[in-house]
Amino acid sequence: MAAADSPSAALRRRDLCSRGIRLAGKMRSDVIDLLDTYVERQGLDASASVVTVEGVPVAAVERWDEQTGTQRLLENLTAYRAFRVLLAQMLEEHREQLGDADTGLGRALAAVLLQVSAFAYHLEELLRLESRGPPSEEGTAPPPVPHLGLFERKLRGLGVLRELAQWAVRSARDLRQLTKPSPGSSSAPSWAESP
Amino acid sequence: DSHIQYERVGADVTMKCGSMDWDAAVTWTANGTDIDESHLNGSYLILKNVDLTRSGQYSCYEGSSWHLKYQTYLRVGTPPKEPVLMCRSNNYPKGFYCSWHLPTPTYIPNSFNISVIHGTKEMVCEKDIYPKNRCHIRYLQLFSTVKYKVTLTVTNALGKNSTTLTFDEVAIVKPDPPESVVAKPVPNNPRRLEVSWQNPSSWPDPESFPLKFFLRYRPLILDQWQHVELSDGTSHTITDAYAGKEYIIQVAAKDNDIGTWSDWSVAVHATPWTEEPKHLTTEAQITDTTSASTSSFMPPPTTKICDKGAVVGSGAVAVCWTAGLVLAAYGVLFI
C-alpha cells in the first residue's frame, strides 16, 4: 500500500520501533524487579517450577526467525492484551487480600500494568501503519478467573510474571527484526514477506 | 585366543592359562619377559594389588612344548569419576554446545552418552568431530521458560558415572570475546588512545541480537584497571591516558539483554602519541621550532634553556639541571 510505504510512515514506524524497544527493555527490567518482590512477599521459592499456566500467553516459539513482521506484531499484541487482563486480575486479588493498604507490591504491579498497556498501544499503532490495522478487542470476553486456592493463585501469578519477562525479551528482539531491511529491497521492510 | 582384560588399580588379578589344569606346567610372560614362579599358584598367574605398570600383554605357554595356550591384554585402570560438563551458547539464538571431560584419567577407553531433554521433548545433541568431547544442539524454540536438562553418562569396563546440568535458554548465553582489537595513538593527542574491535564472528546476528561491550585498560606500570561499559558501537576513545605510558587494553562482550560476559579479548598494547624529542640545535633553528609547540600537556621544550649556544660555563649547566628537575617534577604529576 502506498500509504504504508510513504516516507512519513517509514519514519513513524522506525520511531515506534525504537521507542518500543526501549519500553520493552524497561518493562523487562521492572518485571524482573517485580518478580523478586513478588516471590518475597508471597513467600514463594524463587526456583519453584511452574507448569504452563492456563490462559497465560507463552513466549516460546518455534522458527522465530521465519516469522513475518505482521505475525510478530499480531502475536505480541495478543499476548500483551492478555497480560493486561491477567495483571489487572492479579492487582484486584492483591487488593482484595490486603484491603486498601498501599503496598510496594501493589504499586509495582500497577506500574508494570501501565507499561504493558503502553506497549500494547505501541503495537496497535504499528499495526495501524500496515493496511491491516489491529484486530478488534470488542466481543472478546476476558478469560474467566479460575477458582483457585490462595497458594495456587500465588503460583499462577509467578507463572504470569515469568512469562511476561520472557515476552519482554522476545518483544525487543521482534521489534529489532522489524527495523531490519528485508533482503533485496533498499526501502523499509515489507512485513508481509518473511522475515 | 586373545582377550582384553580390564582390572581396577589395586585389585588382585588371577589369570588362568586357558583350559589348562591347575597343576599343568606352564610359563607365563609379561610383554615377552618370563614371569617369576613366585607369582604362580599352580598354573594360575596371581598379580596382587596391580598398578598401572602392570598393563601389558600376558601370555601362557605349555611347559615342554612352548605352545601358546592363552594370551590376554591386561589394561589396569579406574572406573570413571563424575565427569565435568559445561554447556554454553556462543551463537545465540542458533543453539548451544556442551563439552565435557573427566577430572582424572581412567587409563582405559571410555564412552560418553549425552541426553538433552527440554520439557518432555528429547533433543539430539550432534557430536562434533573435533573436539571430540563436544556436541551441539539447535534451539527448536526460543524464549522458552522451560528448562533444559542435560545428562552426561560416561561408561568404561570398570564402571559408570554421570552428571546432570539444568539450565534455561538464556542462562548459558556467553559470547566469544570481541575480535580484531586494535588500539592506536591519536596524533597530537598525548592522552588519547583510539580503540576499535569487531563482534565475535561466532555471533550470528548482531543486528537483531546486539552486543554491548566492556573495555578495560591500564598502564603497564599500574595494577589498577579502568573500566568503561559501552552499550553500542565497536570503538571507543580513551581520553585520560597517562602521557607516554604504554597501555594494555582488553574488551569483553555480552548480549544486551541476556546471559553473561565473554572472556576478555586478547590484550593489545599501545602508547599515546608523544611529541618527538627535539635535538639540540642552533639558536636560529630554536626560534622556528619552539613556536610550533601546541600541546599544553607537553613539558616545555628543553632546547630553549639547554641548547649548546647557551651552555657557557657552569652557570648554564646549573640552568640545564634546573630545567631537568622541572621536567621530572612535571612528569611525576602525570603518574
From TrEMBL, chain A:
GO terms for cellular component: axon; cytoplasm; extracellular space. Gene3D superfamilies: 1.20.1250.10. Residues 175-195 are annotated as: Disordered. It comes from the Eukaryota. Its main location: cytoplasm. Keywords: Cytoplasm, Developmental protein, Differentiation, Growth factor, Neurogenesis. The keyword Zinc-finger does not apply. Residues 181-195 have a biased composition (Low complexity). One of its GO terms (biological process) is positive regulation of axon regeneration. It is found in: Cytoplasm. One of its GO terms (molecular function) is growth factor activity. CNTF is a survival factor for various neuronal cell types. Seems to prevent the degeneration of motor axons after axotomy. Belongs to the CNTF family. This is Ciliary neurotrophic factor.
From TrEMBL, chain B:
It is a lipid-anchor; GPI-anchor. Pfam families: fn3, FN3_IL27B_N. SMART domains: FN3, IGc2. It is found in: Cell membrane. Keywords: Cell membrane, Disulfide bond, Glycoprotein, GPI-anchor, Immunoglobulin domain, Lipoprotein, Membrane, Receptor, Repeat, Signal, Transmembrane, Transmembrane helix. One of its GO terms (molecular function) is interleukin-11 receptor activity. Belongs to the type I cytokine receptor family. Type 3 subfamily. This is Ciliary neurotrophic factor receptor subunit alpha. The gene is Cntfr.
